[in-house]
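ping. complex inputs:
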Amino acid sequence: MTTGFFWDERCFWHGGGNYAGMLPVGGLVQPLDGGLPENPETKRRLKNLIEVTGLAQALVLRGAPPASQTDLLRVHPASYLDEFKALSDAGGGELGRRTPFGPGGYELAAQSAGLAKAALHAVLQGEMTNAYSLSRPPGHHCLPDFPNGFCLLNNIGIAIEAARAAGLAKRFAVLDWDVHHGNGTEAVFYDRSDVLTVSLHQDRNYPMDTGAFQDRGNGAGAGFNLNIPLPPGTGHTGYLAAMNRLAIPAIRSFAPDVLIIACGFDAAANDPLGRMLATADTFTQMTRQVMDLADDVCAGRLVMVHEGGYSETYVPFCGHSVLQEMSGSQISAPDPFAEVFPLRQPDARFDAFLDGILSDMAAAL
Ligand code: ZN
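pong. complex structure:
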């Protein structure tokens, strides 16, 4: 078994400008060290942690060229790309909602998409069993012509369309377990029957007006989008139940050629932008679930593309857990919160409440 890890130092150079968390600095809002929650630290520290433990040596570390203009045009209109490139060349700015970028932001975003593209290619070509792309900036919120939620290009959409153009696969399933709705990926493929998009997310977190269970796709794509909105406070057993009861059966019946995970870590118990209670072990178990599923339906072909996750202390450990499971390594990074977060899980009353929500969704499918 070979597990690829695609990364590029320049992905850590993307910058968001003068922010204090989600707030632009000004008036009484003072500058904050690190600026936007989407800053390099969470991702860089994941890379650092796998080097410190030695897990990096059990992986195949690779770089990749940036996605080409042809790659980007399969998902994004030329009008958007031209505007993005011009503003990037002019020193940066903002074209959507909460997606500030600095000089060279266009090239850095293309680099991020290029890593996802290369990871998917490597797995589909049989070079690797599975692969992880440490993409940054993230991609799952980006619509074809509207960047939002820190996402400037739709990395997974670009990777899928490049793989299809190369004749490497025909049917793709995307499972998004970032705590926020994968509205961009949903939009790219909403009227398509050859790409199944499934999103597990905190109900009405971000965006607040998308991610409803009723949104099942359009036209030929009807039935090929599945949103699984979960109530705030969903924890370890709730996530595994939502996977078992809804996400996994949907993907199993779709029978994709490859399974792609939009892998955010912001469902973790101390994430500043989520209100969920997942732990590093939750991510280990969900990784096990999707590996077993991929073994059953697509010869183990599994690609994870990094999305959100804003705890600088916890994302590295959650990511390490995923990579350890993907690679089957014995090298672990023990969860420093292992004595705390399992005690903060929802009680039986919440589990019963969630069970009712999941049952209603399952009955409506
Ligand atoms: Zn997120």
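Strands lie at 3-6, 19-20, 23-24, 60-62, 130-133, 172-176, 195-202, 225-230, 258-263, 302-306.
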